């Protein structure tokens, strides 16, 4: 039965092309996911890091000493990057090390914070209240971002699963049940047309989901995979149900 299902896919050239393209695109889709997870991990650690810096500076320590202390007391990615940067700062100024640290994180939040800290140092402003305010502001910001991402990710994935999996399987079950090939119904061209329709619908669903979450470019890497999955599920389900 499995061999028969695989043989039936030979008539769909588009499906075979999409499978090959999808396998190639997976290599381009994984790095943005890992990079985004890395960046969000750094940004979620930023408020507690700023709060600890504020406490240390308020206790009378210098900013560089407080940063060194925080980098050694935590195993987070943010602390590890800061530790590496501070070790390299012996060959440059402390302000240059802050810029280097912000660049290594590749996070706009950290870069804005380091720019504000550098400006405060140049103007001899009190760092303790600045760091404390930044900590509270970014904690609220990250809470809102995490809540929004959770809600939109669930809705976006629901759209993709329904359009790319649920709908093709449902229609295939109906077609296979009422117009089975085992009873002599010649609907090969009809099935091919419907498979193209589900591939296009899957592409639209994935694009809409990516646009909702603000990651359209990253989502496009996975578009051929979902299109191939939608076509394969429809053709395979029609074959399995209709005989």
Mean pLDDT: 85
Question: What is the distance, rounded to the nearest whole angstrom, between the alpha carbons of the first and last residues?
Answer: 9 Å
Oligomeric state as shown: single chain
Given the C-alpha coordinates, what overall shape results? elongated
Radius of gyration: 27 Å
Please mark out the parts with pLDDT under 50 across 5 or more consecutive residues, or reply none.
none
Number of domains: 2
Record field, number of beta strands: 0
Notes on the structure:
This protein has 243 residues and is mainly α. The protein has 2 domains: 2-38 and 147-242, no CATH class; 45-145. Helix content is 84%, strand content 0%. The protein contains 10 helices and no strands. The protein has helices at residues 2-8, 13-58, 63-72, 77-88, 94-105, 108-122, 127-178, 188-212, 216-219, 223-242. Helix 3 (63-72) packs across helix 4, helix 6 packs antiparallel against helix 7 (127-178) and helix 7 runs antiparallel to helix 8. The longest helix has 52 residues, at 127-178. The protein is elongated. The mean pLDDT is 85.
């Amino acid at each position: 039965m499995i061999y028969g299902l695989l043989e039936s896919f030979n008539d769909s050239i588009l499906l075979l092309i999409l499978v090959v393209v999808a396998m190639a695109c997976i290599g381009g889709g994984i790095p943005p996911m890992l990079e985004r997870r890395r960046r969000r991990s750094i940004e979620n650690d930023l408020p507690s890091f700023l709060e600890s810096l504020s406490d240390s500076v308020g206790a009378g320590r210098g900013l560089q000493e407080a940063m060194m202390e925080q980098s050694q007391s935590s195993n987070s990615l943010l602390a590890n990057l800061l530790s590496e940067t501070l070790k390299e700062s012996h060959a440059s100024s402390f302000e240059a090390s802050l810029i280097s640290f912000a660049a290594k994180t590749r996070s706009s939040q950290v870069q804005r914070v380091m720019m504000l800290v550098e400006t405060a140092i140049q103007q001899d402003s009190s760092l303790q209240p600045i760091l404390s305010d930044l900590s509270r502001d970014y904690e609220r910001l990250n809470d809102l971002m995490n809540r929004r991402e959770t809600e939109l990710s669930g809705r976006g994935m629901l759209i993709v699963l329904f359009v790319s999996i649920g709908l093709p399987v449902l229609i295939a079950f109906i077609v296979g049940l009422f117009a089975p090939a085992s009873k002599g119904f010649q609907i090969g061209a009809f099935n091919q047309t419907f498979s193209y329709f589900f591939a296009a619908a899957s592409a639209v669903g994935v694009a809409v989901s990516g646009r909702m979450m603000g990651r359209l470019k990253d989502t496009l890497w996975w578009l051929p995979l979902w299109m191939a999955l939608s076509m394969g599920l429809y053709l395979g389900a029609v074959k399995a149900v209709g005989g």
